[in-house]
Amino acid sequence: MQRYSRQLIRKMTTDSSKNQVDNFSIHGHSIDEVYNIPMTAINRPIPSILDREKVEGMKKAMQTEEQKDDLTPIDVHHVQYKGEDYYFAFGGCHRWAAHKELGKEKIRGKLINTPPSMIKNYLGASSPFKDV
Fold first, then answer.
1. Which of 1, 56, 57, 58 is 20 to 30 A from 50 (CA-CA)?
2. Is beta strand 74-81 parallel, antiparallel or unpaired with respect to 35-38?
3. What string of H, E and C letters represents the secondary structure of 60-115?
4. Which secondary structure element, helix H or strand E, spans residue 43, and what is its range?
């Protein structure tokens, strides 16, 4: 797994301005800053069940100049643990699939500071954070 610090993601992004984004996420609704996050930095530990029609619609929108930035940013949980930065996404599976299928290297996301114990609650024995 490739490691990216939050500072590196900030430097890599081209869209860290304060954007007005419709985001009804319980985690990200109060966060204004949107980043272009390298997809290789994000762990997606839960397999997705996809509606193919929805993914295809998103891909089509992403390929048109007028709609390419219309998709809501995904929520990315940022965990700092023993001096390392970890990034997890649990939602946004259709947006993720559309980006992946189009070969995109980055995805728009909001970084949510999350304690390792919360990820352990989500993942149980699969959590990389065993001693929290």
1. 1
2. unpaired
3. HHHCCCCCCCCCCCEEEEEEEECCEEEEECCCCHHHHHHHHHCCCCEEEEEEEECC
4. strand 42-43
pLDDT, one tens digit per residue, over 39-54 is 999 999 999 999 999 9
Lowest-pLDDT range of 4-13, 40-49, 97-106: 4-13
Rg of the chain in Å (alpha carbons): 15
DSSP state of 40: G
List, in order, residues 6 or more apart from 109 with CB less than 8 Å away: 34, 35, 37, 42, 73, 74, 75, 76, 89, 92
